[in-house]
Task: structure prediction
Amino acid sequence: MFTASNELLDALRQQLGPDQILTDADSLTHYGRDWTRFAEPAPSAIVLPKTIEQVQHIVAVARRFEAPLVPSGGRTGLSGGAVAAAGELVVAMDRMNTLSDVNLTERTLCCGPGVITEQIQQRAGDAGLHYPVDFASSGSSQIGGNIATNAGGIQVIRYGMTREWIAGLKVVTGTGELLDLNRGLVKNNTGLDLRHLMIGSEGILGLIVEATVRLCTPPRNPQVIVLGLPDMESIMQVLAAFQSEIDLLAYEFFSELALQKVVQQQGLQRPFNEVTPYYALLEFEHLGEDTEAQILMIVERCMESGWVADAVMSQSVAQARALWRLREDISETLSHWTPYKNDISTTVAKVPGFLAAVEEIVDRHYPDLEVVWYGHIGDGNLHLNILKPESVPMDEFQARCKTVSAEIFTEIAAQGGSISAEHGVGLLKRDFLRYSRSEAEIGLMRSIKAAFDPDNIMNPGKVFPAQPSAE
Result:
């Protein structure tokens, strides 16, 4: 457990104002956690830099005092990557929130790491362009955190992950050196692209201090359809039927229990009266009457095949948003039950067998608990949520879920999948990293971290499993 000394805090104050260093209990709790609740926040202090130079100063002080640093963005993470539970200094990027105008020639904009994702989307929209990485927390997540976790979201099936949309990065490494990576170039074939090492690195290599973001043409007249499905196998049959004829923007799924929770907690309406075990939400570009006729024909064929029991299609922007809330409000709704989350994936072709195998494990181990499925199934990503009963202590619940997760992850390894599709590894999944990465890969990743962060001050204790003591 690290404790920040008065000498350390005085050294920070040489370039930081009194309002940029917080040590009160409320601030320590607020900035020391993310959306997970499996570890109590216990940082020594919160620092809120405003400039790149101040970030470099913080790193220099941290090196001198061997102080661990935890980067903090919008604190919407779901793997404990931004949790400070061992006396660390939290480097909160909230005040590094400059946002440039859109460069229409390059179709880019430049921003600080503390800019809210939704602000980038709005700035792009005002210029007639589109930033396509979108998810339920876009109104509170920050772009620096999105980049550090390579965030995905609801339109990965069309646009890919955050990685595809970062044209350049500025990063302060664990030595305090400022790296200016790629500088917005489209073509740059000059050796290793260190930008891509930083994307998804969860703050263990350095602190992101500026990003150049790519933009694109917005989708034309998006429309939404929600389908009721009788079983998990039908989810993939329907996906194949649509993808053979339509270029989808999104393909999401959720279970009946997920729908029940959202309707009850958020006061929303069910999409239709018929109750089915699973639901699929599809978004596509409505390009005219021919598109709607084509969609209805596909739905009719799916119904004839027994894959779809009922359907509703949006007829207005407001209705499309209401249907999206049935899916996007799930994560916030489930937070009331402090769920144990599994964010897992495999290749789309393997999803049917993967689903069946994981569902068998879950049904066998959790007959007495509520289990909620949802996810971005169009790209092979499933979110499995085990809801904690009020009567069960947190440590007992977490220990039980970890034991079952090991069995689930064994199946994932057999399928060549990932134990963390988009939420990162952080604290919660570091002990399971070997199910997705070989010992050789983990060794190389540790070596890369040592090169960028020789003093191990950048988000220590995250991503990698703990090594045995030398004693």
User: Anything to note?
Assistant: The longest strand covers residues 206-214. The chain has a mean pLDDT of 95. Residues 338-434 form a domain with the Alpha-Beta Plaits fold (CATH 3.30.70.2740).
